[in-house]
Amino acid sequence: MTTFTLDDMRRIMGGCAGVPDTVDLADDIGEVSFVELGYDSLAVLEMAARIQQQIGVRIPDDAVDEMKTPQAAVDYVNRRLAA
Amino acid sequence: MTERTLAGGERPVVTGIGVAAPNGLGTQAYWSATLDGKSGLGRITRFDSERYPVRVAGEVSEFDDTEHVPSRLAVQTDHWSHLGLTAADMALRDAGVEPGELPEYAMAVVTASSSGGTEFGQREIEKLWSQGSQYVGVYQSIAWFYAATTGQISIRYGMRGPCGVICSEQAGGLDVVAQARRLLRQDATVVVTGGTDASLCPYGLVAQISTGLLSTRDDPERAYLPFDAEACGYVPGEGGAMLIVESQAEALARGARPYGAIAGYGATFDPRPVQGQESRSNLQRAITLALEEAKVIPDQVDVVFADALGVPEADLAEARAISAVFGPYGVPVTAPKTMTGRLYAGGAALDLATALLAIRDGVIPPTVGVRATAPAYELDLVRSAARDGPVRRALVLARGHGGFNAALLVTDL
What we know:
Chain A is mainly alpha-helical. Chain A has helices spanning 6-17, 34-37, 41-55, 61-66, 70-82.
């Protein structure tokens, strides 16, 4: 895998933390905060664990705290993949 | 917090019922099946039980976890909470309670749980052993916990009044209603209460089998026969019921139509069994306490919903307690749980819902499977077919594993 896309992120979000009632994950959700999307801190922690297993990128807890939006998560993973 | 004594108009009433039972999902489906004597017992399908000594159970087969519970909520909760959330939603709708329109601190939640989220835990334990600790999901931390159903109901509807969980196995379904009543004497005006359990996974079943009280018979029609000479233990089941409890004055003021009132309650605990001696039961004392509080004499009770463990020694103890209070063959006794199996924390909550429906419709649902009550029990067991009432007062009995006894009397209004 060379890049991690927003679609990859959507798949992980829906797969491990469920699909929110009020938002369609297929929408332009990149810059919408996880909180607004209906995902709490436990949900984001769960997503980080799945990214780690599926993509092989380790995400320390401090970095999880900084991932406020799906796009921020995508960018973080891609930076680590490029490094 | 100060406690008030409830005056007549403030007595607790049940205004909403939600049922998730092996023989019917939804109150109406359950009640019709129960009156018709339709059992929900069958071979276990949730996992391959072939190599386990217990292979028959009561499963809520119509229930679809992803259909009945919103996705975000479903991933972080166990099947037992899914059944509880669904029943609570039904109960709120039935009561006509709109949580969004009520003061959030006046709404309380108290549910019963016995096993917690064992099926969820089983999946996570499997990941731990087969893949490693990194694969264990974060939601294990909140899904297994006994209070998870209460907490998720509280969050879902914004009910921020007193919340709690009671773990006294089968007695829990009645103990929570007593706690709900206590909360109404404080600041709560609406309490979501009741209970569910669902522990039909290998881990959950093995824990239950260790008591030695479960039936190992393979024929679902002959596996659970309380008070029968052929009684051979009980069949486990999943599901339960949720109830909405509020004060009569408040309920009537908002135009609700209560099913009945909580008139009396008693709880006792059994002494520790001594090896070589017949164990002593304090169930009779719980019955007397409930009747005394309700100021009802035994002759005024129209039906007893028995705990009906299906284990001869326990059946005899219960029959003696009933006969001691009501006299031999002194009151109709029934055990509709023969159609669902024992639902643990959900069992007595469902019996209570059933008792209220019996009062509403003036009919006593039957005990199925039992061909002949053992004569020593001296019980008037309502067998085979429903019996016409009237039913104005119903007593529900429950015994929780380890010595819990509870009795709760419900009356018409």
